[in-house]
Write a structure and sequence with these properties.
This protein has about 1000 residues and is of the alpha/beta class. It contains 34 helices and 41 strands. The strands form 13 sheets. Strands 5-6-4-7-8-3-9 form a seven-stranded parallel beta sheet. A seven-stranded parallel beta sheet has the order 21-22-18-23-24-10-27, sandwiched between helices. Helix 6 (about 170-180) runs parallel beside helix 8, helix 26 (about 740-755) crosses helix 30 and helix 27 (about 800-810) runs parallel beside helix 30. The protein starts with 9 loop residues before the first helix and ends with a helix.
């Protein structure tokens, strides 16, 4: 199979545009430099012996034509668009950009496509991707491989050379420096961080009297930093990246550090809320009410000060006689009988020694033979029994999902993390591989479970009822080099050794094979150290079977299975009911959830916090003359920083946040009770402010698997004649056409160009730098950078008509009329048709800026005209959404989390996506005039020029049994057109036209308040 990619995902396009727009106004230019030809080239050309002086070749590099002021203005515009803190300067005159994207949302795809977008827009050709480890290097290489055809299709078959740097083939750096094509070089930070790295050493044979890195520096590459929290975590690593002489660095991470100019943020909360990754549920395995033996768990030891102490978890009896498990601090000589509150089972447990040597930590006792090792427990359910239960639950959950997902063409994978290879694979005296205890357990449990009547058809389809348990699991572990004609033995590693290189390579190569039904492997065992840089979209279960306390971070653990799943044709599946990642945790749900939350916070993600920038990009109503046009061609006006600061002061005044912006409980309570208030002067923006506050109240949703429920049909509603009447009024499909007025397009565009387009001349940039000559070569430090004068454009002018045709698909005649303000009369003379004049003088002043701004205005006006002129028409009597589709819908949710019990909808539960939806659903249930309602399924879509549109609700109102009214509702926090994003507003307008074309049976209505909706009927 071959993975497919969707080029239209909004959040990815936003991240790409955020970087592209930093260089708005950049004119495509290259820098040229000399490159010494290597000796064997000269010999091949017949130019003499190797000892003769070498001739010079030509290198090609990136060239930045914008000054610091232009860049900063562009950065601030992007930050305002995304509600991020504004940058005040470029520290040390360096251009470092930051993109925050959660694991599993396609970060690597985004930055690869961003590089191609920068080439398309501005002609940049030299790019380097720096990664922290072999694992991530292999992941990037795999993504480059599987996206090549996709990107060629998007970018007109552009030729680009993407390769992994290898010191054994260092001559590739010459190709990187001299090629006219796009060059993308992938490097680990360790490959050039040290002076002894080959790239930093003189190489007379292949590079004349230069170091390879000197050629790299000349190209002024755009450098992508993947996972900067690991790649540039030290000052030495930062200096290594600076040694590449980057034109700019773009840093992509889910946990950014050293942030300077954040352009885009898609954090964990946003990713889960937008269903861009799998939902997470936890099945916990922890002993309960098991207090009959002396339970002890050594959590930590501490020898940093005297006396040496240890933290021990034990069962303590309180004054009321209730036994609770809690952690206590002990030292040598402490009697655990006393610490336990006098429980007899701890008699004789007097601490003898606390040993703190790293890797051998333990605690023993004077009168008992037990030795308590760090991360180990005694006096509880046997560790092996707990692991067997985890394994059984994983297999059962896996097979249940096979029953559900296989018919949809989705293969299910489960991942077991272990910390000792010997538990899965051992070797006998002759070196032959034999099964370890985990492999034996697995096959025993799998054979038992798969033979249950519930799975009979699955057993027959997968194995033809044969005993094939050993074929459905396999291991991915690092191995030693082995002997002649013998494979290496698997071994425990740290995840970053040379032996791990081949393991990551194997995991990546097998990625697509594992997704195919043709491959029998469905259960994967891997070392817990191999935890970063790889994942598989169809991992649905993760189970950690570590013998000692797991050091793997929860966030790294779930990261291997967060990506949305794919089917057998490689297409991504976006149904949230299918995309559920189940974690089998050997701890309680509360412990897992709190640990994961703490990890996010430790990584710098602030939950339940508001800041001024959150409110600065609230859209406000303005006239067309006041509006700005952003990079996507949208007319926008934002609240801005000054009023956003007023919002924060108002929230503090009413006690909704503290001085640090931390959200108080009163905020959520007032929102839920419709008591939220803001200062009087902010009243016009109250709904938008409230929506932002509601979003900030969210945290990462971790669900209890045991609360998962599947909604089933409520046949009393579904089969009722009233529901059939409601459905018959809205079920019809439509098609649309657009009445497009070229005259109106020209009128609006030329007016907007006259109002907005102020084209600056290009600038000559004077840069002053200090030079230092040291052992590492010549180092520069910029001390001044300013524009000293302007100059007229060059004699070369690009083909603006072809450019605008490519951007808009308009005819050449229309574009010429737009630019000149003239059109031909009957005699063939070009006559002015308005008072805005010929705009070509501005084009000559700065061609690139003029073309970019004109294209943006055209896109904005065209989009508006398309929606204004849209006409829907109902298709034939056979084109509609069948009511029976509800019967095949699979709705899942979690009690007390996102499910509401229902008696008036087609299912016994309503699964809601937001607090706003929950409130509407509850109101529908409580109001006696609402006879029945339905949350419209994802498959109920209306076609629009802006993409598919899915309204929220269908509702039947019964007024005293006298009159039945049918409504389709779009519920938003605020339905004011000025408060909605332009695309949202235009899709709602298309929805209104669609239902108008169906007649007058059902009325389409955007609403933001249930009470007002009922009053307006």
């Amino acid at each position: 199979m071959k993975l497919k990619f969707d080029s239209t995902l909004d959040y990815q396009q936003e991240a790409i545009a955020a970087v592209r727009d930093v260089f708005q106004g950049q004119t495509p230019k290259q820098s040229l430099f000399t490159v010494a030809a290597i000796a064997n080239e000269q010999m091949a050309l017949g130019f003499g012996s190797e000892s003769q002086q070498l001739t010079l070749g030509q290198g090609i590099g990136n060239r930045l034509m914008l000054d610091e002021e232009d860049l900063l203005n562009n950065i601030r515009a992007v930050q305002l668009r995304h509600g991020l803190p504004q940058s005040n300067s470029l520290p040390n005159h360096k251009l470092n950009l930051d993109i925050e994207m959660e694991t599993g949302t396609g970060k690597t795809y985004v930055y690869l496509r961003t590089l191609l977008e920068l080439n398309k827009a501005y002609g940049f050709t030299k790019f380097i991707i720096v990664v922290p480890s072999v694992a991530i290097k292999e992941g990037v290489q795999k993504t480059i491989e599987i996206t090549r055809d996709h990107f060629r299709g998007l970018y007109s078959n552009v030729n680009y050379d993407a390769f992994v740097y290898d010191g054994k083939h260092i001559e590739k750096i010459r190709d990187f420096a001299t090629s006219n094509d796009i060059q993308i070089m992938v490097m680990t930070i360790n490959s050039f961080q040290n002076d002894l790295n080959l790239i930093n050493r003189y190489n007379d044979k292949k590079f004349g009297e230069s170091k390879p890195i000197d050629l790299v520096r000349e190209t002024k590459p755009i450098v992508v930093i993947d996972e900067p929290q690991s790649t540039i975590s030290t000052d030495a690593q930062v200096e290594a990246v600076e040694s590449l002489n980057p034109l700019c660095t773009i840093r992509y991470s889910a946990t950014p550090i050293r942030v300077e100019n954040k352009l885009y943020r898609l954090n964990a909360v946003d990713s889960f809320a937008k269903k861009l990754v799998k939902g997470i549920e936890v099945e916990s395995f922890a002993a309960q009410n098991d207090h009959n033996e002396a339970y002890l768990f050594l959590k930590s030891v501490n020898n940093k000060k005297s006396p040496i102490t240890a933290r021990v978890e034990m069962d303590v009896q309180n004054k009321r006689g209730v036994v609770q498990r809690k952690a206590v601090t002990v030292k040598q000589g402490d009697d655990l009988y006393e610490k336990s509150g006098g429980r007899d089972v701890y008699e004789g447990y007097i601490v003898k020694d606390i040993y703190c040597a790293e890797g051998s930590e333990y605690m023993d006792f004077t009168s008992c033979s037990d030795i308590l090792h760090l991360g180990k427990a005694i006096g509880t359910v046997h560790d092996d029994e707990m692991k067997r239960q985890q394994m059984r639950a994983t297999i059962e959950e896996h097979l249940n999902k096979e029953l559900e997902l296989n018919p949809k063409g989705i293969k299910v994978l489960s991942l077991f993390f272990i910390d000792r290879v010997a538990n899965y694979r051992e070797y006998d005296a002759e070196g032959n591989a034999v099964k370890g205890k985990y492999a034996k357990w697995f096959e025993e449990i799998y054979q038992d479970v798969i033979r249950r009547p519930k799975y009979h058809d699955l057993w027959h389809r997968l194995h033809n009822e044969d005993d094939e348990a050993e074929l459905v699991h396999d291991g991915y572990f690092s191995a030693d080099k082995g002997k002649k004609n013998e494979p290496g033995h698997w071994k425990d590693t740290s995840g970053s050794t040379a032996a791990d290189d081949s393991t990551y390579n194997l995991i990546m190569k097998d990625k697509e094979r594992l997704l195919s039904f043709d491959c029998k492997i469905r259960f994967i065992f891997s070392h817990s150290a191999l935890r970063e840089g790889w994942d598989n979209p169809n991992v649905f279960q993760i189970c950690t079977l570590n013998e000692t306390k797991s050091t793997i971070k929860k966030r790294q653990e779930i990261g291997r299975g967060l990506r949305l799943c794919v089917n057998q044709t490689g297409e991504r599946q976006y149904d949230a009911n299918l995309n559920i990642l189940t974690v089998m945790a050997n701890e309680s749900y509360d412990e897992f959830a709190s640990s994961l939350q703490k990890e996010y916070e430790d990584d710098g993600i602030r939950f339940r916090v508001l800041e001024t920038a959150n409110f600065a990009n609230i859209l406000v109503p303005v006239s067309a003359e006041e509006a700005a046009t952003d990079a996507a061609g949208e007319e926008t006006a934002y609240l801005g920083t000054e009023k956003a600061e007023m919002v924060m002061e108002s929230l503090k005044e009413y006690g909704y946040v503290d001085d640090e912006g931390n959200i108080q409980e009163s905020l959520k309570a007032d929102i839920q009770q419709n008591k939220f208030v803001v200062a009087e002067e902010l009243a016009p923006y109250k709904a938008q402010i409230q929506e932002i506050c509601m979003q900030a109240c969210r945290t990462v949703p971790i669900h209890k698997k045991r609360e998962r429920r599947e909604a089933v049909l409520n046949k009393e509603v579904f089969l009722s004649p009233e529901f059939k009447e409601l459905w018959d009024s809205i079920k019809w499909k439509t098609t649309y056409r657009v009445d497009f007025s070229t005259e109106e397009l020209l009128r609006r565009c030329r007016k907007q160009m006259a109002l907005e387009m102020k084209i600056p001349s290009p600038k000559i940039i004077q840069t002053k730098a200090d030079l230092t000559i040291g052992t590492g070569g010549v180092e520069t430090k910029v001390v001044a950078d300013r524009a000293v004068s302007t100059y007229g454009s060059s004699n070369f002018l690009p083909d603006i008509v072809a450019y605008l045709q490519n951007e808009t698909n308009l005819t050449r005649r229309t574009i010429v009329e737009l630019l000149t303000g003239t059109r031909q009369d009957e005699k063939g003379n070009w006559i002015p048709f308005d008072d805005y004049g010929n705009r070509l003088k501005d084009f000559k002043k700065n061609p690139q800026v003029f073309m970019e701004n004109t294209a943006k205005i055209l896109r904005s006006v065209m989009k508006s005209l398309i929606v204004d002129g849209i006409k829907y028409q109902r298709l034939g009597d056979s084109e509609y959404y069948c009511q029976e589709l509800f019967e095949s819908e699979e709705l899942k949710g979690y009690l007390e989390s996102n499910m509401l019990e229902s008696t008036k909808s087609p299912y016994n539960y309503v699964v809601y996506d937001s607090e706003n939806e929950r409130q509407f659903a509850q109101s529908f249930e409580d109001n006696e005039d609402v006879y029945l309602y339905a949350k419209l399924p994802d498959w109920f879509k209306i076609s629009t020029p802006l993409g598919s549109y899915n309204p929220d609700w269908a509702v039947m109102i019964d007024q005293n049994g006298e009159k039945k009214l049918y409504f389709v509702l779009e519920t938003k926090g605020n339905i004011d057109t000025d408060a909605l994003r332009k695309t949202e507003s235009e899709k709602i307008q298309c929805g209104r036209e669609h239902f108008a074309a169906l007649g007058d049976k059902a009325e389409f209505m955007p609403v933001d308040n249930f009470t007002e909706f009922m009053h307006n009927i």
